């Protein structure tokens, strides 16, 4: 019913994930290498012809049971829908890295200055309880660190609209303490701790928080040069 777009940048497992997606959904489109998270999603919206469109991240392994068959009622065509994903490092199951269903025009018109891209599209948000994918972001040291850093900046700075503080702090603690024995898991914990500290320090400095969407800046920080 809705177009599917796979968005990738530099994920080492992106080609493999996209080919698996195509085997089940051969009309899925792809946006690759667009710099900037907001800009990549705007590019995805421009490829679509349906009022709503699906987004699959480059590090997402879609579970067999997920069918991309949700039909949005008319009164929710202005809602952002986010499905649940299982974190491959710490086991958390929530919207981080999950499949999303966005309103096309609102995505084209989104506020690109907000650090959290998903909540910058609409103030109306619907959390879907079905598991859509495994977020396999622990592919190499930098991508693992980057994923954890960005998410924990958003959690610790409380920048995500409508988040529940108790739930947020539980997730933040899990990011910072679990998964060391998983492949490259130590980089996830390092990134989480660094992200937690950066988010707390810059909670009231939106320009600094926007930097988490600049992958060049993230690489410099990972290398100790920023």
Descriptive report:
The chain is of the alpha/beta class and 226 residues long. Helices cover 38% and strands 19% of the residues. The protein is built from 8 helices and 8 strands. The chain has helices at 14-24, 37-46, 104-108, 141-157, 165-177, 185-201, 206-209, 215-222; strands at residues 3-8, 29-32, 52-57, 60-62, 80-87, 93-94, 100-103, 125-135. Strands 1, 2, 3, 4, 5, 6, 7 and 8 form an 8-stranded mixed beta sheet that branches. A hairpin with a 5-residue loop joins strand 5 (80-87) and strand 6 (93-94). Helix 4 packs parallel to helix 6 and helix 5 packs across helix 6 (185-201). It is globular, with a radius of gyration of 16 Å.
Concise overview:
With 226 residues, the protein is of the alpha/beta class. It has helices spanning 14-24, 37-46, 104-108, 141-157, 165-177, 185-201, 206-209, 215-222, and strands at residues 3-8, 29-32, 52-57, 60-62, 80-87, 93-94, 100-103, 125-135. Strands 1, 2, 3, 4, 5, 6, 7 and 8 form an eight-stranded mixed β-sheet that branches.
Describe this protein with a few key phrases.
38% helix, globular, 226 residues, 8 strands, alpha/beta
Radius of gyration: 16 Å
- Principal-axis shape equals globular
* Discrete helix count: 8
Structural class: alpha/beta
The major beta sheet can be summarized as:
8 strands, mixed
> Would you list the SSEs in sequence order as H and E?
EHEHEEEEEHEHHHHH
**Are there runs of 5+ residues with pLDDT below 50, and where?**
none
DSSP E strands, number: 8
> Helical percent range?
25-40%
Mean pLDDT: 94
End-to-end Cα distance: 44 Å
Strand content: 15-25%
